[in-house]
Amino acid sequence: MTTSSRRPSSASRAVRRSRRPAPRSTTFLERNRTRLLSAGGIAAFLALVFVGLVLPSITPAYACVNAFDPTPAPSFVAPSQAPAASGATPAPAVTPQPPGFVEPDMGHLHVTAGEKVTYTYCPPASGKHYSVPGQYPIKGGLYGPGDATVPEGWIHNLEHGAIVLLYKCPGDACTDDGQANLQAMISRWPTSPICKIPPGALTPVIARFDNMPYPYAAVVWDVVLPMQTLDEQLMFDFYSAQGERFNPEPQCPQPTTTPAAATPTPAAPNPSAPAPTDTSAPTPSASAAPAAS
What we know:
The chain is built from six helices and twelve strands. By secondary structure, the chain is an alpha/beta fold. The protein has a domain at 59-73 and 95-242.
């Protein structure tokens, strides 16, 4: 007896195929998970770079309320250690007037490095500043137009008796020849008028500062000498007359006017007096490092 083979009809095969589960479609996130994770990691990295490097470079580390304008001050008035808003009575005017103009004192508090400070006057000759051993006060010398220097750094130098020469860009000082002239000037810089600190570790600081209405300004604590042109002799005379007279953290004792046999009392600052010749005052070491922070 023969058995005939039965082949499934095309209709039955179609039924069986229709019973098979249809393949599941994947979502957009599933199909692109790897690429999305990579892109997210790159975006996070770029955000960190922007916050850590780019943002600080475009965000000012300080702010200015007023540009210091000395023209209303017809004569020199000795600085007061009291803050500008204290209402303290200023000392009598000094005649003849020494170089420079007094800027109201803004205090000398230390703040955390990186904190933004708002100064009542710019360029500031006092105020809040950073204090980090080995970093602030900053090293004396010439800082070029592209170097990152902020007032919170060099105000600490002022606090210890340094002089700071600021220049504005664009201007003559920002050119190659101007920078070479500033560098050469350091070799002619005199020692500090009272403590005899030589140019080097602490003073002078020469740095770019654009927030002022004049091309140059020499600054010691509480006193500013605006200059339309770089007048080396005038600046050195200013340093001799005003340097180390008012800074709150002097590096050596102030000279006295009382005889040695009498009970010594501190002498009132006299900005018009010439540099003292008394050799009894201690001479700072060649490193000229600040004695206190």
